[in-house]
Specification:
about 575 residues, mainly beta, Neuraminidase, Immunoglobulin-like, 2 domains, seven-stranded antiparallel β-sheet
């Protein structure tokens, strides 16, 4: 009997698409990358935005523009479908989240810096205040004032709603257990968690226009908080006013009743959570809070698995019911997703989830760059692995590379969040949704076709060399690993010698010799194709000479003119 043909199992891109999946379009952005992709349910790109800036994530607005959470520098911007910036709001302490409000303003998650002296005066234990002070959760509502301006029209700070029982001579002293509406400045999750510069470290927010309330996620407290947005700016810093009558005090908190002395570690339900949000009206579970429960905390605790939890809060008008001497309800979530083997789904940081119109839930395992959709019963019906590393596409047959992040190595395709949009979402109406290429490289030959755009080689030798834009592309087929061992030489003759780097000005050419193992992006023995790319400098280049050598021996070489020098030695126009 003949053997069946081998089936190539993709490692990135679309992995699974079952009939029960919700059709729509998914927005993905590699965390701290510069390109945002909108893909259809088959994994094909229907639109892309080149942002030209380092960003954490993006949301698709109802007008078809993107709301972009910029990382360096810290900013929030709106970008049209062609990548043009409509407006930009830059503030040094913005981080992690932002959203557009129904009134056209933007809600921004920020921080306030407090000095050591300020923290101690507020009742903080001096032993746990670092030398650079505390970073305190701060929420800003900003009105846009032109293309590059944003005026603060409302704000809330955790600093105005503190309590402590450490030092009766300092501010905010009181009985923590009697004031769940206030935040204990000395709360620590564990012995390895000092109050630290990040203290409460909020990482996500959402706005409920019906309640006029905000939910935020102070990760280092392992709970979610809800505050009243109906207050005036002055009321938000006080303990009265607004629809709730409680000013800016916490209306509700859930996940870790230890924070207000109403429980023990056994009562804790959230662990370094992300992305809290109200399930929108009209969706299954509307009004409940959905949160990605990472399952990990500081060094001395890890639950060992992640979950997505749906919480039915005890909302009563503008307030939340709380029985005396007890914790806020519910004791348990009304719905939880975990993997069949819980440890198979474990994202220690970032990540999020979204309830879909058909009752399914889209889950973003941001650590591993993986999106998957599950039914209410927990069946996975759609799965997609982000192929974008922010520095190029991934070949489906290769594993995801790692990037150094501080003292950690993290997958280069990680995501902060992703969003799914229904086909009738207003923001899609002005976009051309014709399916195009996939992000991933399904074969190296496919990659070459895209890369060279059908251009002819400028050098034909042992390796074919293409000039595409500002890049040289080296291709060898067939190719074996030994073909890549000799070093490549690359010499550039400038139009104007004065354009050469300082260390090369004494020479008549620039030397950009390179080794394949450091500069190449693709090598596939299965397809017997080797590809290396080399970016050229941006000064005028008159001619290029390239090839390979071992020691003093040149194995192959070739050259070509790039521009015709003008009579005065400058580049021809």
């Amino acid at each position: 009997m003949p053997r069946p043909a081998a089936v190539s199992v993709p490692t990135v891109g679309l992995i699974l698409n079952e009939p029960e999946a919700f059709g729509g379009y998914t927005l993905i952005h590699k965390s701290r990358g510069e390109t945002t992709y909108l893909i259809d349910d088959q994994g094909a790109v229907v639109h892309r935005w080149e942002l030209g800036t380092n960003a954490i994530f993006a949301r698709l607005l109802e007008n078809g523009n993107l709301l972009v959470q910029g990382h360096v520098p810290r900013h929030v911007s709106e970008v049209d479908q062609h990548g043009n910036v409509v407006w930009k709001c830059t503030r040094a302490l913005l981080h992690h989240d932002s959203l557009k409000m129904p009134n056209g303003n933007v809600l921004l998650l920020s921080r306030q810096r407090k000095t050591v002296e300020e923290a101690i005066a507020a009742g903080a234990d001096p032993d746990f205040v670092p030398a650079n002070g505390l970073a305190v959760p701060h929420i800003i509502e900003a009105k846009l004032t032109g293309r590059a301006g944003c005026e603060v029209v409302w704000e809330w700070s955790a600093w105005d709603h503190l309590i402590q029982d450490f030092d009766s001579s300092k501010a905010n002293h009181g009985v923590v257990a009697k004031h769940p509406e206030l935040i204990d400045i000395n709360f620590r999750l564990s012995s390895t968690h000092s109050t630290g510069v990040n203290w409460a470290h909020s990482n996500g927010l959402d706005y409920n226009p019906e309640l006029d309330q905000i939910v935020l996620s102070p990760r280092h407290f392992s709970e979610v908080w809800i505050i009243d947005h109906s207050t005036t700016r002055a009321e938000a810093s006080s303990h009265s006013g607004g629809r709730s009558g409680k000013g800016g005090d916490l209306l509700y908190r859930w996940g870790n009743p230890r924070t207000y002395r109403a429980g023990t570690p056994d009562d804790q339900r959230l662990f370094w959570q992300h992305n809290p949000q109200w399930i929108a009206p009209g969706l299954p579970g509307a009004g409940n809070i959905l949160v990605f429960n990472n399952g990990h905390e500081f060094g001395d605790f890890s639950r060992g698995y992640s979950s997505v939890d749906e919480i039915a809060s005890p909302v009563d008008g503008a307030n939340y019911r709380l029985n005396p001497h007890s914790a806020y309800a519910p004791v348990e979530p009304v719905w939880v997703y975990t993997a069949a083997t819980p440890s198979d789904f474990f994202a220690k940081y970032v990540s999020g989830a979204q309830r879909l119109p058909n009752g399914n839930t889209l889950i973003c395992d941001g650590v591993h760059g993986t999106l998957f959709e599950v039914t209410p019963a927990g069946k996975t019906v759609w799965k997609y692995v982000n192929p974008s590393t922010g520095k190029g596409r991934l070949y489906q047959g290769e594993s995801v590379p790692l990037e150094q992040h501080g003292d950690m190595e993290r997958p280069a395709n990680r995501l902060y969040r992703a969003y799914r949009y229904a086909p009738d979402y207003p923001g899609l109406q002005g976009l051309d949704l014709t399916p195009g290429d996939r992000i991933e490289i399904t074969s190296i030959r496919d990659y070459l076709i895209r890369l060279t755009d059908g251009a002819a080689p400028v050098v034909r030798s042992d390796w074919d060399v293409y000039l595409v834009g500002n890049n040289l592309i080296y291709v060898k087929e067939p190719c074996i690993p030994e073909d890549t061992e000799p070093k490549f030489f690359l010499h550039l003759d400038p139009v104007d010698r004065n354009d050469l780097p300082i260390h090369r000005k004494q020479y008549s050419f620039d030397n950009l010799d390179f080794a394949f193992e450091f500069e190449a992006h693709l090598l596939s023995s299965s397809e017997e194709v080797c590809v290396a790319t080399r970016e050229l400098p941006d000064y005028g280049i008159a001619a290029i000479r390239t090839g390979q050598f071992t020691g003093e021996d040149r194995i192959w070489e070739g050259g070509f003119d790039v521009v015709e020098p003008a009579d005065d030695g400058k580049a021809a126009q």
